[in-house]
Amino acid sequence: MSIRNPIKDHLKKHGGVELVEPVLAPATADPLRFWTNHPTEPYLVNLHVFAKGESENPHSGGAGIWSGAFSGRPGLIAELAPAIQARLTLAVAGTCAGYTNALRSFWRVFDQLEATTVLDGRKVERLTSVAQLTHLHEAAAHHANVDSSRFQIFVRIVDDARRLLRLAPLLWPLRSLGEPKRQLIPDNQAKAIKIAIKQDWEKVRKKWARHDAIRRAEEPDTLSNYERHDASIVRQYSEHNEELRHHWQHLERIQNATSRILPTPEKLRDGVSNLNAYTGLELTLMRAIAFPTRHEADIAFHAALMGSGWNPSTLITGIDATLPERIFPHPKDAGQNVLVVDAPADEVGNTEEVTMQGSKRRAGGRTQFCMGLKKNPASPPAIVAAWLERTATLRKQLKQDCAAASAELTKLKVGGAPQETIERQFMHAQSLQSGLRNVWLYVDLNGKINWIDGKRWATYSRPDGAKKKRSYLDQVISGLNAERAARGEREIGNITPSDFRDIYARWVYNQTGGNIIAVMFALGHASLRSTNPYADNNIYSAEADETVFRFMTHLAKELEQGRVDLTILAQLVRHGPLSPEMRGRLEEYRGLMLSRIKVGCADVKHPPPDIEPDHKEGEWCGTHRCLRDCRNARFLPDSLDGISMRVEELLVMSDFLPFETWIRGDFEKELEAGEYLLAELYPAEAVEKARTHWREKIASGHYVVPGVGLIRKEAA
């Protein structure tokens, strides 16, 4: 598998594709109110609240998180505004929100500090300039537990402002943010979630195939052979086909009458106030025949995310659906397209792999790659390609709406409309352009074109009617947990879409035998300096946590039986349950008697005749010549030391025994067998250590080789 540079010049091949012109942010002369210059998502930053103060919850209806009121500091924010604008020049909405949240936290800290009476009864002077900041304010921020990221943001913009005023920086030490600690679910649970999401995606594909057949005026053929034997199922299926066909015919008629791909709900009602009551037609079902729903979008997005290893934000904003090179003609079927940037061909020229690429904002726009087999409809590139195909008509409608919104914005600017009106229209046009670039378009319940933006996940009603709704991922986990509870298995904990990247990284790590380089490439990291801390926090720690959990679980079960078998416990923790065959081998091993050289004997009372010709019935083997091809010998891991001892004995015996005795006793064959076993069955370092131990013991006289001592005495 290789990653090649994608073709750069796509304009000639796709010369007929019209790119979308960007909408320029309106200019403003207010230093406390400016637009960022992000190329695709400019954002309006309004700092007036920090000059005037905030006494009420700014969120409509009291929704959202609000930490309380704070007073205005016009002089301080005026000094900070140039530094803030400089740092947010190319920022997106999330980054801007982080800066304003940091300012809110410190504005509240300053109010709390100034409301405190010090020991001598004096009050802290009101802060109106960055020149007045001292370590007292730093201590107050730490005392208020200001978040590390907000602390760093504030210190940086203050230091920028102080440099502009030719003041020394604050020198407040910045605390390391580090990597977030994650509690990953076990591999088997992650696999169950992946399978469930993949099955949902397959249901979506079958549903689309059925709807497409309805639109082509064909009879859908999606029943299995088993279902075809049931006449009632076939009849109900056919009746529902008629219902779908009736809905589609109505939608097609309104499309032709209005010349809109997605007619408004009012047009679809066709002058009838309650369409369902009078005609039996449902707007939601009608639109679902031709366009994806939010639930289908959630399924497709999570399926692609689970198999890509990308961050959710990269999969949402990293792929620009308006670029022409995203769609490439299928090499065999002219009726369909696939998403492909780099597709290496095999020996006969057929393209087997497709590659998807996206830009990761958090990595400075670094390109992320994701590959998959074309024949696998659940691979991320195939899912994105299928979604682009399915939403092509919606994107066409959205492009028309975007052009109309841009034209209206130009008209307002030329006509001298109020600034607020221009900005409101600009935000509308900007939103449409953002959707036009987004892959994950769908039609919402209100009949409008919408898209997954990652800021807020859709929620769905619970089957038990509870008020609190849940996300698609919560639905999947809840369904799996119901099945696992019935089987008495461990419940799956809560996870978020951002956890999928860590799960994918762990999967790559395990599949490659712990290859950190493979993890680096899979995650799209520029170097191992990024991958190592990531693995420490997200893979190794999760592995350790899961190992401890397995150990404690199996230890408790062993204790319930009144004993702890360390061998069985180690197997359970490291590799899983013991099979009956493994238990049988363990019992056989433990039932073996050991010879003098620590070799197991399967039948100690019946040695082979060639090993002990003078053996008496009922007695144990007395020769212990296990290395002489004895059929009862069982060479165990613990036999290393005994075999090493016997080999060193034989080497000494070869020097002192008469040649005739050596040959007649088959000692040469026994020595060869021992050396072969040591070379083939045991680690070389362990063998060398054991043999050295016995060699030195024999040479020092601490161990006497059987028979050799008597020979030495006779020789003397």
Largest sheet: 3 strands, antiparallel
Total helical elements: 27
**Secondary structure tally: strands:** 15
Range of strand content: 5-15%
Explain how this protein is built.
The protein has 716 residues and is mainly alpha-helical. It has five domains: 33-164, no CATH class; 223-290, no CATH class; 294-451, no CATH class; 460-557, no CATH class; 592-715, no CATH class. It has 27 helices and 15 strands. The strands form seven sheets. The protein has a three-stranded antiparallel β-sheet, covered by helices on one side. Strands 1-2 form a two-stranded antiparallel ribbon. Strand 7 and strand 8 (366-373) form a beta hairpin. It is extended. Mean pLDDT is 81; it is low at 1-20, 224-229, 325-330, 332-351 and 710-716.
Which properties best describe this structure?
single chain, 716 residues, mainly alpha, 5 domains, three-stranded antiparallel sheet, two-stranded antiparallel sheet, 15 strands, 7% strand, extended, disordered N terminus
Q: Nutshell version of this structure?
A:
The chain folds into five domains: 33-164, no CATH class; 223-290, no CATH class; 294-451, no CATH class; 460-557, no CATH class; 592-715, no CATH class. It is built from 27 helices and 15 strands.
Break the fold down into its secondary structure elements and pairings:
Elements: E1 33-35, E2 44-46, H1 48-52, E3 53-54, E4 70-71, H2 74-87, H3 93-114, H4 135-143, H5 148-164, H6 187-215, H7 225-228, H8 231-258, H9 265-269, H10 275-279, H11 283-290, H12 294-308, H13 312-317, E5 327-329, E6 337-339, E7 353-360, E8 366-373, H14 380-390, H15 392-414, H16 419-437, E9 441-443, E10 449-451, E11 459-460, E12 470-471, H17 472-487, H18 499-511, H19 516-523, H20 528-560, H21 566-574, H22 580-591, E13 593-594, E14 600-601, E15 633-634, H23 640-656, H24 659-664, H25 667-681, H26 684-699, H27 708-715
Antiparallel strand pairs: 1-2, 3-4, 5-6, 7-8, 9-10, 11-12, 13-14, 14-15
Helix pairs in contact: 2-5, 3-5, 6-12, 8-11, 12-14, 12-18, 15-16, 18-19, 19-20, 20-21, 23-25, 23-26
